[in-house]
Amino acid sequence: MNQPLAGFAPAPVTARMENHGNHMLKVAMQTGNDLFARVGSMVAYEGFVQYEPNPPAVRQIARDWMTGEGAPLMKCAGDGLLYLADYGANVVVINLNGDAISVNATNLLAFDAHLTWGVERVKGLAKFAGQGLWNTKISGQGWVALTSRGKPIVVDCGGGEDETYVDPDALVAWSPNLKVKGKRSFKAQSLIGRGSGEAYQMAFSGQGIVVVQPSEDSTDRLRVRG
Question: Is the full-model pTM beyond 0.85?
Fold first, then answer.
């Protein structure tokens, strides 16, 4: 191999999912251990991997996904190595050990197909965002990959009485057992959020984590059902 390129070669496989650098996901594919991944995220693969966009299982579970066009997911199956990316966004890999995570749909890159998942309304925010916000809850034993527009920060809410406040446009994911409520921010309207209308924050409390990206692009906002 050309010496200047040697440092970019794939590392030996050590897990089902792992990072290749900060902006690419490597998945060890095996027959019978299928994967759901964002449509268009495949950048390369080795071996024999087949793809099925918007398979029946996805259409059935996510028929109410707020895109209005169904879930932007494809089913990946086969044997080999699969590389995924999302326009250079940072990739965060999570190994669920029987627990759960609630993910902004725009930040969901891939997850094991055997995991339990569905689209859920975020409670406590209806009066702040029309009919409310919707997220994807994933639970079980398996792997999940998220994207972040820049290097994210993971905030441990700590289980105390203090609340953690997050701009909805910067939110990536959180522990679904956390309590969530909205807080209007009239005085900070010109500073918090970049959309039109009344500014608000999401307040989290309880035992769990919140993943926040350094981006407040309104295109990354949680899906709103109008």
Answer: no
Distances (CA, A) of 208 to 80, 131, 170: 35, 26, 18
The total of other beta-carbon atoms located within 10 Å of residue 136's CB is: 24
Contact residues for 121 (Cβ-Cβ < 8 A; gap 6+): 132, 133, 134
List, for residues 27-57, the tens digit of each pLDDT value: 999 999 999 999 999 999 999 999 998 888 7
> Cα-Cα-Cα-Cα dihedral of 225, 153, 44, 95, to 10°?
-90
Q: Which parts of the chain are beta strand (E)?
A: 17-19, 25-29, 35-38, 42-53, 73-84, 90-103, 108-112, 116-122, 133-148, 153-156, 164-166, 171-174, 179-184, 200-205, 209-212, 223-224
